[in-house]
Amino acid sequence: MARERGYLSMELLRFTTAGSVDDGKSTLIGRLLYDSKAIFADQLEALRHASEKRGEDRINLALLTDGLRAEREQGITIDVAYRYFATPKRKFIIADTPGHIQYTRNMVTGASTANAAIILVDARNGVIEQTIRHAFIASLLQIPHVIVAINKMDLVNFNEDIFEEIRDNFSAEAAKMDIQDIHFVPISALHGDNVVKRSQNTDWYGGPTLMYLLENLHIGSDYNHIDARFPVQYIIRPNNDNFHDYRGYSGRMASGIFKPGDSVKILPSGFTTIIKSIDNFNERLEMAFAPQSVTITLDDDIDISRGDMIVRENNVPKIDQDIDMMICWLNEKPMQLGGKYTVKHTSHEVRCITKEITYKINITNLSRDVDDKNIMLNDIARIKIRTTKPLFFDPYRKNRITGSLILIDEATNETVCAGMIV
To answer: Which of 46, 140, 271, 322 shows the greatest Cβ crowding within 10 Å of its Cβ?
Structure first.
């Protein structure tokens, strides 16, 4: 039981892979899983059988994530594939995302919750347009850590000069973006060099392996522990003899820290009160911090419902109906200027109208196009909306939870847009 509890409390790292077509993303993930002993015997046998059917002389590790028939036939990644594995140090959730321009929305979906992004670069091709595009999306989504895995080093004879040239070129491009923490690793995903085990072919490289980096990246400070935000998801009223007067407000800490005795304000009402207790499913807690899911009880009986937010009395988010944000359009139906959509922001749901398209990002050279007002599938743009009721939000740069939202088509109920509040 103690061992199981320790396993459940292990730190979780979410990371995404990005790179151009054939850079080896799926192979790299397969190699990570294979070398870290995270593949079951029956999975390995199925991989061996599938590889033999394709006439390949070795196990094709890319087939582990490329699960769709079209992916296997074309040898590309189309949809986002999620894989879970764990080492003695940390648990991981991997999002294997496509490299094609037309699947930009899939990369945004897979990267939206990531702590880290692995951007693969083919050592033969160096930094290309798609590399810059993926770095830009990582910057746009404020992914805290970026690992540039320079792959296929075996095809350039593990040349140190090529590695350094790619590192310098990428660093020059990244300097124009908002990327905080960058690491460079020379690897061969096909043969396993510097993926889990150190390679003897790169004696000139003194840095860590890719797995060591993933296990030891400091992600504790990735969450905003300053601005306390608690969107209320559900009101708990057991109405039984043991908890006759219990009234708790459950949800997930978006950011910050709360303790019993803290003075808090309820939005949108503006009423203030004191936190009486903080509970989880089986115990009373001395504090709550992101990203814990907890139930908070208050000293005063205030009318609170789903979509309200509990914040510190002297540290409140911005409250406004006019929202300025960067978006990635996720739907085949283009955005309608003046169109009406449903907004989902934390646990809050309101309606909105699209007011203005400020500019669209030219995805080929990352320039701003102020004349093109057609927002189509996979487009990235800056727009303004007006909501029917005020939202309680922080800039996305400051808080990825309270600074993000999605738009939903009211007719089809499809998610059409991912937004990052400026």
So the answer is: 140
Q: Which distant-in-sequence residues (6+ apart) come within 8 Å of 139 by Cβ? A: 174, 177, 178, 179
The gap from C-alpha 51 to its chain's centroid, in whole angstroms, comes to: 32
Q: 120 and 39 in one domain?
A: yes
Across-strand partners of 121? 150
The count of structural domains within the chain is: 3
* pLDDT given at position 65: 63
What is the full DSSP assignment across 270-317? --EEEEEEEE-SSSEES-EETT-EEEEEESS-----TT-EEEETTB--
Q: Report the predicted TM-score, pTM, of the whole model to 2 decimal places.
A: 0.83
DSSP SS3 for 79 = coil
Task: From 284, 312, 340, give the residue that closes a domain.
Answer: 312
Same domain, 297 and 345: no
What residue type is 203 in one-letter code? D
| CATH number reported for the structural domain that contains residue 269 in this entry | 2.40.30.10
Q: What is the 3-state secondary structure (H, E, C) of 18-29?
A: EECCCCCHHHHH
Residues (pLDDT < 70) of the chain are 1-9, 60, 62, 64-80, 99-103
Residues 179 and 88 in one domain: yes
Residue 415 shares a structural domain with residue 343 = yes
DSSP β-ladder status, 181-186 and 248-252: unpaired
> What is the sign, positive or negative, of the torsion defined by CA atoms of 260, 264, 266, 271?
positive
Across the beta sheet with 91-96, what order do the strands follow?
A: 81-86, 91-96, 12-19, 116-122, 145-151, 181-186
The answer on 186 and 50 residing in a single domain is: yes
How far apart, in whole angstroms, are the C-alpha atoms of residue 354 and residue 335? 9
Residue-range definition of the domain harbouring residue 364: 318-421
Which pLDDT value is given to residue 113?
83
Q: Per DSSP, what are the bridge partners of residue 235?
A: 249
